[in-house]
């Protein structure tokens, strides 16, 4: 028995993943057998992370094109170094550039080949592009071998010249050509070696035939399945048990000039197939009522219709006083949403956002006795549908006793963003939190703002010092901190309201020295997941295993603010007075830990949009020689001062770090430093 979940075309994929998660989980618990997620096109490589975040493993994704080649893998396993050596031997090049996501081979100033690296494991590649005089000629896409090759020609458009895809050749596992996909204007077709010529609908029919569906198999039509694939299922796969899902964004609506169908955005008509559907899933009782009404209107068979609501609930809301007479509203929402709305106690909407990650809003113009409600919504063809609502929230007196956790924040001339930072940390769901802010000699209004918070909140401690740098400020905060655990935060970033509670519960339950969370990097293009590790969550892991799997082999991030540390560990291992203190201190402190645990909650938010010319920006703009000096100081610090019992592991980390820096910066001093470390330690 097999279960096939037929999914969306690429442009609908994110909506389908978010809204379909609840349905998939509940339905699949009722069906035994191997599960495969079927797509007419393979998901873009860069979007595979979305599938994994929604519980869909790469190994379970099946593309129509992929299945017809007999190559059932979609994840890359081709080693970068092996292919790079092949290219070096085959191509005449004059230079190599190593970048974060690609390696470029250059000849006479032009890129002639580009190796595209797997974001999760840069030791493996997923594609290679070949160029001639800056024009893209072909692109090879890999699994454990060549999966398909795209061929391009230069074409003209209103926006200028571009690389136009004209042919795609798919390969069988033995390396022979399986078939070609031909693109001409708006048309496409498929040519097989035996002379067969298929259109896209015919290719889908061939795919369904090869599945050989029987009454023991189940087919789940997940939201916006393309018309031609649905037709193939109902024509050649009708022996299977068929379930059709309509997530909360789909309603029966009337399209002008055509019969009734689901949302006009979707390119198919469900009603003509309803006699062959065994079960339908909707998300609201209103949907079910409307669906039954439409089916009865046309004298259609009414299948078993189940209501499975979209999941989502507010788990935490808090309202605090903020600087300058404003109010700070924060919330934590569990589930999938398109955005949030905020209403005052009279029912007036005062704010709406499409940012589903948002958890903080500064309210102006309301008194301290005001109350508010936060609502989560999804966008549907009939407008916004509210899927969850918080309880009314008012300012409450907060109790603060002996601190369990101390949060240390260095601040320097931070008047433009320190209010958001303070509101953010005071909204943490852990009540016994000490907030230690070290003002590093600010000459703007930062000291005045901090003094207001210290006067209003008893758990806020302000330390004033002459400008001495971030490391000195953190050390001053460490010495003053009273909590059993310690967390660090930069003055322009944000924390999820449940971050410290979540890490505290994890570190206590697993008896660890350090608890780690994945993070988001906030850019002008959105929220980018970082510091993610492919390890079991909320389980104690020996530090040597963590180093080996996720730093030596996985090239982990030197990031200190996404962790909760035992205070006893930190107080005996202070920060060095170095500019690249993250790189130096992170591995240094971890070398003295015995066990760590991990949560993939994206609880820390590294905001790259709120200000320009950060310290990181300044470091990146330095010369190769200056950068080398900074990294040398950092690496030599943890080699000399790290745990002597983990010297072998630290050497491996230094080697990985230095050889990567040598490639990315094209500067051989890094290699020389590694040889020096190898001889010295």
From TrEMBL:
Keyword vocabulary terms for this entry: Coiled coil, Glycosyltransferase, Transferase
Coiled coil regions, renumbered to chain: 77-104
Pfam families: Glycos_transf_2, GtfA_EBD
Domain GtfA extended beta-sheet meander: 112-194
Gene Ontology molecular function: glycosyltransferase activity
Ranges of residues in domain Glycosyltransferase 2-like: 406-531
UniProt xrefs under InterPro entries: Glyco_trans_2-like, GtfA_EBD, Nucleotide-diphossugar_trans
Keyword Coiled coil attributed: yes
EC numbers, comma separated: 2.4.-.-
UniProt name for this protein: Putative glycosyltransferase EpsJ
Organism field: Acetatifactor muris
